[in-house]
Design brief:
Elements: E1 3-9, H1 13-31, E2 36-39, H2 44-50, H3 56-64, E3 67-72, H4 87-98, E4 103-109, H5 122-125, E5 129-135, E6 145-150, E7 153-158, H6 164-179, E8 184-189, H7 195-208, E9 215-220, H8 221-230, E10 237-240, H9 242-255, E11 263-267, E12 272-276, H10 293-305, H11 310-325, E13 328-329, E14 339-340, H12 343-354
Helix pairs in contact: 1-10, 1-12, 6-7, 8-9, 10-11, 11-12
The structure holds nicotinamide-adenine-dinucleotide.
């Protein structure tokens, strides 16, 4: 019995996670899989209830589960707390680190039905299908930080550190992924100015020798940001470090029409974590306006990567596509002539197609 831990979190988190659960239960009925769900507190909701954003009990439940489905954390209410108590700094980052989730995978696929929802011209985005592999537990976000006064002036420092083994481990994952796709890896760095990028490039070059069947190209991050808008269909697997990946994944999400469509999987440890690529969207929380498809598609990734249930994952993806084909749209992807639906109605429609 696959044990799934639900961490709904803050803002729209609870609304979108319940739709994904609806869909997982429907898949369970259709394919006779008895998913077992447990729920725990995380983020601002946990801080309000017990005074910390990542309670020990939640962490223990994470270790005891087979996979984790997270909604989102954060919101203005908790923005002024010290970093260690804030939903992102005190829960999300430590959770990734403690679970050893060093790789974040974000498929960026444009459903043909949503070509007009993309801000780019149809001829530029049609056929878009790439995946970003982002290093998640190293680099600037985890390196030594300092704030100090020097000669009467305050200054702050963050450090971007990567070891060769950290680069090799994520690089290998990107090459393996490319082997199952169109066999091309674009390794994104800033090797013209950053020492950590020069090591990144050298390690990737050497690793590439083990994968002669995969094309390896290097691209500076500033150029990559531009190429994603200019000709995004050139990409198959984009591999990059933590901070660059954070920015490029958000940029990529809009290519698909809405950030509400982008799923993600954080893998590498014993228990993987699945979550939509967006945040807690406090501006629309509690209004049934959120698009639950990114979370539903994250649940599909869970079936694929944690439970090896490929057919079931594909069934969810096909149901999402069919609902979009039938013209149903949450407000973020609404177009003239389409049928508006709420968060819960979108979940019902996808689940309804599954059984
Ligand atoms: P956000 O992703 O929450 O929202 C950005 C914009 O996208 C908003 O206009 C929002 O309404 C919209 N949006 C996001 N998800 C949507 C969905 N499913 N359907 C429709 N529209 C959607 O980013 P933000 O506003 O920068 O951050 C809000 C809070 O979320 C902050 O506290 C931030 O720290 C947190 N955050 C959390 C995570 C996470 O939990 N993984 C990631 C990013 C931001």
């Amino acid at each position: 019995m696959p044990k799934i831990l639900l961490l709904p979190g803050d803002g729209i988190g609870p609304e979108i996670v319940s739709e994904a659960v609806k869909v997982l239960k429907a898949v369970g009925r259709r394919f006779q899989i008895d998913f077992h769900f447990t729920e725990a507190l995380v983020g601002g909701a946990a801080y309000d209830a017990v005074g910390v954003p990542l309670p020990d009990q939640t962490l223990q439940l994470c270790y005891a589960s087979d996979a984790i489905l997270l909604g989102a954390v954060g919101g203005p209410k908790w923005d002024n707390l010290p970093m260690a108590l804030r939903p992102e700094g005190g829960a999300l980052l430590p959770l990734r680190k403690k679970l050893g989730l060093y790789a974040n995978l974000r498929p960026v696929v444009l459903f043909p039905e949503l070509v007009d929802a993309s801000p780019l011209k149809p001829e530029v985005v049609s056929g878009l299908d790439f995946v970003i592999v982002r290093e998640l537990t190293g680099g600037l976000y985890f390196g030594p930080k300092k704030r100090e006064f020097v000669e009467g002036e305050e200054r702050a420092m963050d450090t971007m550190i990567y070891s060769a083994s950290e680069i090799e481990r994520i690089g290998r994952l990107a090459f393996e992924m490319a082997r199952k796709r169109r066999r091309k890896v674009t390794s994104v760095d800033k090797a013209n100015v950053l020492e950590s990028s020069r090591l990144w490039r050298a390690v990737m070059e050497k690793l590439g020798e083990e994968y002669p069947d995969v094309e390896l190209e290097h691209m500076y991050v500033d150029n990559c940001a531009m190429q994603l808008i200019r000709r995004p269909v050139q990409f198959d697997v984009i591999l990059t470090e933590n901070t660059f990946g954070d920015i490029l994944t958000d940029e990529s999400s809009v290519l698909t029409g809405s950030i509400g469509l982008l799923a993600s999987a954080s893998i590498g440890g014993k228990v993987a974590l699945y979550e939509p690529a967006h945040g807690s969207a406090p501006d629309i929380a509690g209004q049934q306006k959120a698009n639950p498809l990114a979370t539903i598609l994250s649940a599909a990734l869970m079936l694929r990567y944690s439970f090896n249930l490929e057919e079931e994952a594909r069934a969810i993806e096909a149901a999402v596509r069919e609902v979009l084909k039938q013209g149903y749209r949450t407000p973020d992807i609404m177009e003239p002539g389409k049928k508006p639906v709420t968060t819960a109605e979108m979940g019902d429609l996808v689940a309804g197609l599954l059984g």
